[in-house]
Amino acid sequence: MMGTHADYQRELDAIRHSRGYDFLALALVEPAEEQYVIRWKHAAGNRNERFRRIVLKSGKGIAGIVFKTGKSVFIPSVREYVGADSLFNYPIVQSEKLESLGAVPLWNEARVVGVLLGGFREENRMTPELMRDLERSARAGIGDLDGREVASS
Amino acid sequence: MSTPAEFSRMSPLMMKLFENSREAIFFFDRTGRALAMNPAAEEIVSEDVMMKLYQGSENALCGTCRGYTSDTEQRTCLDCYMKMPDSEGHTSFQVYLETRNKGVVPYAGSFHVVDPEDGTRVFMLRDLTPQLRVQERLYQNKMMRHVIEAQENERKRLSRELHDSVAQELMSAVIDLRVLKYMTDDETVLKKVKQTEASMTRLLDDIRNLSVELRPAALDDFGLEAAFRSHFKRVEESYGLVVEFSSGLARKRYPSDIETVIYRICQEAVLNALKYAQVDTVSVHLFERGGMIRLEVEDEGEGFEAGSDPIGTGLGLYGMRERAELAGGTLSVRSEPGIGTKVLVQIPMPEFQEKE
């Protein structure tokens, strides 16, 4: 049974409110016939609708990097980490004016199927504690994604 | 030889020349001591250098001279003109002086003996700054044109190579892999082959993207409209920015250099809107009017104050204007904070362009 859009949205809204994120979004990988591109499917606290149109390849953008490596990305200060010149390799950071963010892989049946990104429009708001918390949220699963890195036997 | 009458008429003229000429004139005696300087010359040298010049201290002029241009060097003190006034090479040369108010200024100088009996020499200087500035601008334009042309050609070559050769080879490898799938029933092999096919397809995609980003083959093969449509689609996919494009061009194709100029300027203008305007949509209009190809890129975004400090490098606008001017066209940018920005480019159609 696929989780409905409303389910995902409710879960995102809940996490965003309880942790105080300015922006929280979930990117999911598209099936093979869409060449496994990654799209931002659900978001809370977005400034505009640009994120919906962004199509990422594995390895491109924040979601692409997290998706490819299966590792979290922690960026307390976008300004220091990215620099103005290469900001355009990270479209969502630019269109949502994020200054501080974290992104974690979302697993399902031992594969990375998505990326959960939490961000702030102020510097140094993303902390190691929030990172751990975000990872916990992803591991607990969102919608009907089980969040498990190891296949359940 | 002048008659005494002529001489008496000449003398006041010579005095006026000396007093009012914009050219700096110095007279030196055999030993290098200054005999006289006109007001223009006094304006150049600082006071203590002037004093030393009149006292005849050794190398007094070096206090203000920053070298002259020889055959081999831009600025040198080798074979100083002061030391060898009769040398052929010093009848006219370029020399740099540290001026009192304007920093180091290039001059056309001449230094020669005017009275062989007493050994009196004259040193005359004419400010070269305006000429050099004009020359430099012409040179820069020329260089810029070459650089842009070289860059485009190199991009075209790389892009073609990637598209026609690398991507083709990879494509045939992918097809081989597909054939392989029908040659076995082994599930594990099939699974691996499928994975390999997927990653090779992705690689193929990446190479095609790279090729298009370098220089879209569509621009060379199908012209502006086609190139723009696929470019704007990519912009939408990469950044989520929608470009509303309308084209009213009378013709499909224009000379390649004009197409390139318009394509590159538009690319930059849209990227600027994306970076700074904070908008979801940008509109681009392309049409012909009055013998001009006109390109308008407009957004209803944040805008900016003309002449304010740029957020970026400020080079983007400069480069756009440069490209437009190289094609004999003009570029204007109108922007108002809170209202939006409009970039207008006009390039004269080839038949209206002056033949070079």
The gist of it:
The complex is a heterodimer of chains A (153) and B (356). Chain A has 153 residues and is of the alpha+beta class.
How do the strands and helices of this protein lay out in sequence?
The complex is a heterodimer of chains A (153) and B (356).
Chain A: H1 5-19, E1 23-29, E2 38-44, H2 50-53, E3 55-56, H3 61-69, E4 73-75, H4 78-81, H5 91-95, E5 100-108, E6 111-120, H6 128-139
Antiparallel strand pairs in A: 1-2, 1-6, 2-3, 4-5, 5-6
Chain B: H1 4-20, E1 24-28, E2 34-37, H2 39-44, H3 47-55, E3 65-68, E4 93-99, E5 103-115, E6 120-127, H4 129-181, H5 187-214, H6 217-221, H7 224-239, E7 242-248, H8 256-277, E8 281-289, E9 292-299, H9 315-326, E10 330-336, E11 340-348
Parallel strand pairs in B: 7-8
Antiparallel strand pairs in B: 1-2, 1-6, 3-4, 4-5, 5-6, 8-9, 9-11, 10-11
Helix pairs in contact in B: 4-5, 7-8, 8-9
Tell me what the structure shows.
With 153 residues, chain A is of the alpha+beta class. Chain A has helices at residues 5-19, 50-53, 61-69, 78-81, 91-95, 128-139; strands at 23-29, 38-44, 55-56, 73-75, 100-108, 111-120. A six-stranded antiparallel sheet of chain A has the order 3-2-1-6-5-4, sandwiched between helices. With 356 residues, chain B is an alpha+beta fold. Chain B folds into three domains: 4-127, Beta-Lactamase, CATH 3.30.450.20; 129-215; 223-356, Histidine kinase-like ATPase, C-terminal domain (Heat Shock Protein 90). Helix content of chain B is 47%, strand content 23%. Chain B is built from nine helices and eleven strands. The two termini of chain B are 51 Å apart. The interface between A and B is medium-sized, with 20 and 18 residues.
Number of helical segments with 4 or more residues of chain B: 9
The main pleated sheet of chain A reads as: 6 strands, antiparallel
Order of helices and strands of chain B: HEEHHEEEEHHHHEHEEHEE
Number of domains of chain A: 1
CATH class of chain A: Alpha Beta
Question: Regions of chain B with pLDDT < 50 over 5+ consecutive residues?
Answer: none
Find the CATH superfamily of the largest domain in chain B. Answer: Histidine kinase-like ATPase, C-terminal domain
Approximately what portion of the residues of chain A adopt beta-strand conformation?
Answer: 15-25%
Main pleated-sheet profile of chain B = 6 strands, antiparallel
User: Which CATH top level class of the largest domain in chain B fits?
Assistant: Alpha Beta
Give the proportion of residues in helices of chain A. Answer: 25-40%
Please state how the strands of the largest beta sheet of chain A are arranged side by side: 3-2-1-6-5-4
Tell me how many strands of chain B there are.
Answer: 11
Q: The CATH topology of chain A, please?
A: Beta-Lactamase
Annotation, overall tally of beta strands of chain A: 6
Task: Tell me the structural class of chain B.
Answer: alpha+beta
Helix content of chain B: 40-55%
Outline of chain A, from the CA principal axes?
A: globular
